[in-house]
């Protein structure tokens, strides 16, 4: 493959670290395939991608990756149970029309799922809303209310509750700052929810 | 069925024997006859094919190209009848997307065709006359079995890739489904897992145009020294509209008039689009046999990989080792993206290794034959990626 391998984001490095080499991976919302390419070449995974934007799909296929144009909201149902060792949904859950259904599918088609999302309960977001009375805008939430693709924002506490409701086991929880570096926030959900700008979860079925 | 006499014998009554077609010719089915879906067995029947590039030492660089309804084996060279450049000259050749300096490209005229492979205009060894409508009805699967025999003859156990658009894409799907162990990568383009009611309807219009031409003579026109050129031309005209898009026709012709300043209040071809279609019809009859057109359109109508697999297309690809790349075009309303996506969904359900891209083009179904740089880039990217995977797999062994 001819592409120059770009350095991947810190949070993606963290996700890559959760993935066993030589496993089967589906990257949902794989963009131009940069992360998938990284996994294929450095973790030797059997990698597949699904991406909504045709530009992303074309860039991925042109780079030799197996990627289909599709919509996670509607197309995940086609995949059989346990087709993958890991299904990755990075920074996309909040843009789904049916995040709960999508999350269920992730853990149906994958033995494990890795999900990351921006935390809407970070203290700065609370400040925006509580004091300034404005929709939060930050590094992890970079959009104005009128042009955001994020239609189902949630907090760390919300996400943990949804996992509980769906009978999903949280194997690993990593609380990150805006740059994607792990923050030590102690064992309490309260502080994670207040201090984390984003979070990454390694999930499995009960 | 026994071997029959050579092509030109017995045909002399109807028309002078045409100059033999250039390229490779072989007789297949000598040892084991080819059993067709309709139950008939063919033995020692002619197949015409072309090759480009060289087969490498370990015979791992072969790409089979499956042609569409009115295509033929002259993929990347001037056509022997029309003199026009090969139908996929854009894509196949030295240094092109399907690089003949890297790959050994094979394309055979399909079974039922009229460019050298066994079809209805050939001589029925039992009667010494052209088969005409006694030629057995063939299917897409029969075409593919015939191609598999050709590959056996060429000593190619496993294809690096099989590709084709439209009816060629149907053959690609059939290949991957029937011979998954003989295909490393499959690239069905602008195609469908079944021929839709709308598409069957269009084909029926074409067939009726041919069969209602008095010169069709109940299919026996060769014996009567006639040809249903009018009917075949109308069939081609109707079909040609389905290969284009509204936008493409508008851009090319609009409402512009042909060689005149105003409308003529008559029924001469006044609009450019009319002259264009008539030209398409007239030139087509020079290179195509009317009965062949009936047989091939029928083969497409019969294609239904879904019902063949118990209503679940995914069953056609259970545990498939084949790498797929499905490609469709936004402006294609004959084999629309929805039909191509249906294939993708089935491949996903079979947990197959699949890529899928929809190329933006307003050129209609014919886009895969035309200059579409995005299509070429995706195709090349997929082929390069597949070659890399094949090399890696070979390295592991």
Task: Characterise the protein shown here.
The complex is a heterodimer of chains A (206) and B (397). Chain A is of the alpha/beta class. Chain A is built from 8 helices and 7 strands. Chain A starts with 9 loop residues before the first helix and ends with a strand. Chain B is built from 10 helices and 14 strands. In chain B, helix 3 packs antiparallel against helix 7 (290-302). With 397 residues, chain B is α/β, with parallel strands linked by helices. Chain B has an 8-stranded mixed beta sheet, sandwiched between helices. At the A-B interface, helix 3 and strand 3 of A face strand 13, helix 9, strand 14 and helix 10 of B.
Write the layout of secondary structure elements.
The complex is a heterodimer of chains A (206) and B (397).
Chain A: H1 10-18, E1 24-28, H2 34-42, E2 46-51, H3 54-62, E3 66-69, H4 72-75, E4 84-90, H5 99-109, E5 110-118, H6 123-132, H7 156-165, E6 168-176, H8 189-195, E7 198-205
Chain B: E1 24-28, E2 34-35, E3 41-42, E4 45-52, E5 62-65, E6 92-93, E7 98-99, E8 104-108, E9 123-124, E10 129-130, H1 140-154, E11 159-165, H2 167-178, E12 183-189, H3 197-211, H4 229-243, H5 246-252, H6 272-287, H7 290-302, H8 305-308, E13 323-329, H9 337-349, E14 353-359, H10 373-396
Parallel strand pairs in B: 5-8, 5-11, 6-7, 11-12, 12-13, 13-14
Antiparallel strand pairs in B: 1-4, 2-3, 4-8, 9-10
Helix pairs in contact in B: 1-2, 3-4, 3-7, 4-6
Fill in the keyword field for this structure:
heterodimer, A: 206 residues, alpha/beta, Rossmann fold, seven-stranded mixed sheet, 23% strand, B: 397 residues, Rna Polymerase Sigma Factor, Chain: A, 2 domains, two-stranded antiparallel sheet, 10 helices, 14 strands, 16% strand, disordered N terminus
């Amino acid at each position: 493959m001819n592409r120059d391998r770009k350095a991947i984001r810190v949070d993606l490095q963290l996700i890559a670290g959760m993935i066993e080499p030589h496993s089967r991976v589906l990257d949902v919302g794989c963009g131009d395939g940069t992360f998938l390419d990284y996994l294929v070449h450095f973790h030797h995974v059997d990698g597949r991608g699904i991406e909504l934007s045709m530009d992303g799909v074309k860039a991925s296929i042109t780079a030799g990756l197996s990627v289909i144009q599709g919509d996670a909201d509607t197309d995940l149902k086609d995949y059989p149970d346990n087709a993958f060792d890991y299904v990755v949904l990075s920074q996309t859950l909040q843009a789904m029309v049916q995040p709960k259904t999508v999350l269920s599918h992730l853990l149906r088609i994958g033995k494990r799922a890795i999900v990351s999302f921006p935390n809407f309960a970070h203290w700065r977001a609370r400040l925006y809303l509580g004091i300034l009375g404005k929709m939060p805008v930050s590094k992890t939430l970079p959009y104005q209310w009128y042009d955001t693709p994020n239609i189902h924002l949630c907090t760390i506490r919300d996400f943990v509750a949804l996992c509980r409701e769906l009978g999903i086991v949280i194997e690993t929880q990593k609380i990150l700052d805006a740059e994607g570096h792990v923050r030590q926030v102690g064992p309490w959900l309260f502080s994670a929810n207040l201090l984390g700008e984003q979070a990454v979860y390694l999930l499995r079925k009960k | 069925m026994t071997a029959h006499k050579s092509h030109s014998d017995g045909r002399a009554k109807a028309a002078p024997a045409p100059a033999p077609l250039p390229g490779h010719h072989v007789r297949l089915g000598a040892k084991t006859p080819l059993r067709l879906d309709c139950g008939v067995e063919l033995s020692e029947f002619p197949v015409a094919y072309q090759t480009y590039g060289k087969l490498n030492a370990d015979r791992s660089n072969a790409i089979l190209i499956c042609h569409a309804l009115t295509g033929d084996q002259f993929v990347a060279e001037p056509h022997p009848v029309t003199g026009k450049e090969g139908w996929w000259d854009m894509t196949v050749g030295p240094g092109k997307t399907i690089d003949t300096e890297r790959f050994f490209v094979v394309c055979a005229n399909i079974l039922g065709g009229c460019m050298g492979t066994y079809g209805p205009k050939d001589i029925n060894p039992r009667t010494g006359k052209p088969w005409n409508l006694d030629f057995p009805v063939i299917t897409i699967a029969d075409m593919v079995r015939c191609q598999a025999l050709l590959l056996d003859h060429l000593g190619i156990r496993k294809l690096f890739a099989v590709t084709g658009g439209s009816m060629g894409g149907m053959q690609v799907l059939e290949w991957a489904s029937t011979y998954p162990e003989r295909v490393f990568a499959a690239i069905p383009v602008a195609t469908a897992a079944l021929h839709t009611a709308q598409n069957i309807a269009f084909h029926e219009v074409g067939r009726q145009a041919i069969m209602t031409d008095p010169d069709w003579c109940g299919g026996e026109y060769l014996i009567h020294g006639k040809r249903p050129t009018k009917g075949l031309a109308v069939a081609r005209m109707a079909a040609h509209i389905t290969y284009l898009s509204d936008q493409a026709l508008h851009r090319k012709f609009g409402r512009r008039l042909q060689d005149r300043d105003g409308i003529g209040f008559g029924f001469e071809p006044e609009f450019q689009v009319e002259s264009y279609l008539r030209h398409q019809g007239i030139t087509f009859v020079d290179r195509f046999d009317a009965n062949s057109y009936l047989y091939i359109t029928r083969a497409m109508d019969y294609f239904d990989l879904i019902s063949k697999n118990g209503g679940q297309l995914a069953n056609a690809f259970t545990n498939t080792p084949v790498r797929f790349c499905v490609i469709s075009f936004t402006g294609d309303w004959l084999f629309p993206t929805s039909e191509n996506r249906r294939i993708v969904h089935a491949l996903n359900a079979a947990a197959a290794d699949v890529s899928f891209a929809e190329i933006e083009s307003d050129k209609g179904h014919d886009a895969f034959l035309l200059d579409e740089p995005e299509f070429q880039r995706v195709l090349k990217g997929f082929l390069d990626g597949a070659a890399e995977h094949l090399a890696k797999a070979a390295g592991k062994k």
